[in-house]
Design a protein that fits this description.
Elements (H helix, E strand, L loop, with lengths): L19 H21 L1 H24 L7 H19 L10 H19 L8 H19 L1 H7 L3 H26 L3 E3 L3 E5 H23 L3 H29 L15 H21 L4
Antiparallel strand pairs: 1-2
Length: about 290
């Protein structure tokens, strides 16, 4: 009788990680939509932005629930759509129903969204009212208000060129920070929030973003190169802050990704974090230094 075969050790499996093919497919698809809408249909781009911001608001709402905070997600989503689309409509003067300037429309939707979130919370009583209200206002300010500045970037003269410049500066910030950080990163930038970020990587972010901004300012926006240097530096600084803000939220909540809605990428907020926080400062730079803002 033959001896029983020895137990075969289980085959090693790769640890769960990013699904690279799915990540590439989703990335290419999003880039294609962005290029197509910025080329032929700006309203399509703003609608995409509004939808992505709304999904981001839902993700943050779901994350905060792990801490016992319950924001009023329905009025927040409606307000996010209103702030983004309404601001763009007012800034481009395409809506004959109102003649208010864009900042009045933005403030109107902002105030209405905050009020709606507070009032809709009434039926659940006074317990934890302040905590839930704080969660709602946090999401409104963090996502809806900051995200609406993307509508203003696109609404100015050369709107598509402005948006492309902004997006590529953010891409350069992320690429430069990653490349230099991997090769030369030694000194932690904010170890309590993001252990992998380094001061060396931050320097790479600044250099890549400023160089990209200078080139695009001259060749795309038709302004002096130094405007692009300022834009790149501002974008790199605030884009990195945006990444750290989202990291702080995720670490406080205890999650790795905001969601899995984008295969291979994680959540919408995992892709919007840098763009979201950098949009308002980038718009201000272009408003001040690029004609037609």
């Amino acid at each position: 009788m033959s001896a029983a075969p020895a137990d075969t050790p289980p085959a090693k499996t790769r640890s769960a990680g990013r699904d690279l093919p799915a990540a590439i497919a989703v990335g290419v698809g999003l880039v294609a939509i962005v290029v197509a809408t910025l080329t032929w249909w700006h309203w399509g781009f703003i609608i995409l932005v509004a939808v992505m911001l709304s999904l981001g608001a839902i993700e943050v709402h779901q994350a905060l629930r792990r801490l016992g905070l319950s924001a009023e997600v329905v009025p927040i989503v409606l307000g996010t759509l209103g702030m983004t689309l309404g601001t763009y409509a007012a800034a481009t003067n395409v809506n004959p129903l109102w003649s208010m300037p864009w900042h009045s429309v933005l403030l109107m939707f902002l105030g209405a969204t905050v009020l709606a979130a507070l009032i809709v919370r009434f039926p659940r009583g006074h317990e934890n009212f302040v905590r839930d209200a704080a969660a709602s206002v946090f999401i409104i300010g963090y996502i809806a208000l900051l995200g609406s500045f993307s509508a203003l970037i696109l609404a100015g003269e050369q709107g598509a060129a402005r948006m492309v410049t902004f997006l590529l500066c953010v891409v350069a910030n992320d690429t430069g920070g990653y490349a230099v950080g991997v090769l030369f990163g030694r000194t932690p930038l904010a170890p309590a929030l993001s252990p992998k970020k380094t001061w060396e990587g931050m320097a790479g972010s600044l250099l890549f973003a400023m160089a990209t901004g200078a080139a695009l300012a001259h060749w795309v926006l038709g302004v002096d190169w130094w405007v692009g240097v300022i834009l790149g530096a501002v974008t790199a600084f605030f884009g990195t802050c945006g990444d750290l803000i989202e990291s702080a939220v995720k670490r406080d909540v205890g999650i790795k990704d905001m969601s899995s809605i984008l295969p291979g990428h994680g959540g919408v907020m995992d892709r919007l974090d840098s763009l979201l926080v950098a949009a308002a400062p980038a718009w201000l730079v272009m408003y001040l230094f690029v004609p037609g803002g």
